[in-house]
Amino acid sequence: MEISLAELQTILNRIISKQRHNDAPPAGDLTQCETCNRSFRPKVLFMHAKICQKSATKRRKVFDSSRQRAEGTDPPTLKPLKPKAEPPKKLSNWRKKHDDVIATIRAAKVITRVIVKDGGPLPPPPPPTYDPDYVQCPCCDRRFNQGAADRRIKFCQEQAARMPTKGKLEPKKPPGRTPVWTPHG
């Protein structure tokens, strides 16, 4: 007689579930711990109650991971942790940014209307708007936020020092062809 795999699995599941039900204590035999309100068998509750009261009365220390990381290293090599001071918050200029977006959308609608319907000359582009938080580079006239400006301005000044006349002189022409001397002239 052959048993299929599905039948074998069902039989095993029944056996396992019966064992689980036989091992579990009846619900009436459980007693509640007075400290943590968890339920245990009376034999186990006796041991649990001692540990539970002991752990409930003492406070746990706050774990400091930096101390654990520092174990085994020389104290002079460690840098003391300094709390970072928060930079002062800048005033929000969201309204100006919002108005710039609205102006850009309106200008785009006008250009679209001219291209699609009228076919006439395009209106002049709206004037560029600049974010007042940005710093302008004196060398390349581009604008950057404060962190990027510090790096970029230094870089631009180094570039300008290396090539002070870049783009101001006319490019040198390659030398013309020299005539080749031939004896028959």
Molecular structure report:
The chain is 45% helix and 4% strand. It is built from 5 helices and 4 strands. The chain has a two-stranded antiparallel ribbon with strand order 1-2. A two-stranded antiparallel ribbon has the order 3-4. Strand 1 and strand 2 form a beta hairpin. The radius of gyration is 41 Å and the shape is elongated. The N and C termini lie far apart (115 Å). The mean pLDDT is 79.
Task: Give structural attributes.
single chain, 185 residues, mainly alpha, two-stranded antiparallel ribbon, 5 helices, 45% helix
SSE order and pairing:
Blueprint: H1 5-23, E1 31-32, E2 39-40, H2 42-57, H3 65-70, H4 94-118, E3 135-136, E4 143-144, H5 146-162
Antiparallel strand pairs: 1-2, 3-4
Approximately what portion of the residues adopt beta-strand conformation? under 5%
The averaged pLDDT comes out at 79
Task: Give the end-to-end Cα distance, rounded to a whole number of Å.
Answer: 115 Å
Number of strands: 4
Rg computed from alpha carbons, rounded to a whole number of angstroms: 41 Å
Largest beta sheet, briefly?
2 strands, antiparallel
Please, how many helices? 5
Computed structural class: mainly alpha
The arrangement of helices and strands along the chain is: HEEHHHEEH
Could you name the ranges where pLDDT drops below 50 across 5 or more consecutive residues?
none
Helix content: 40-55%
Q: What strand line-up does the widest sheet have?
A: 1-2
3D shape: elongated
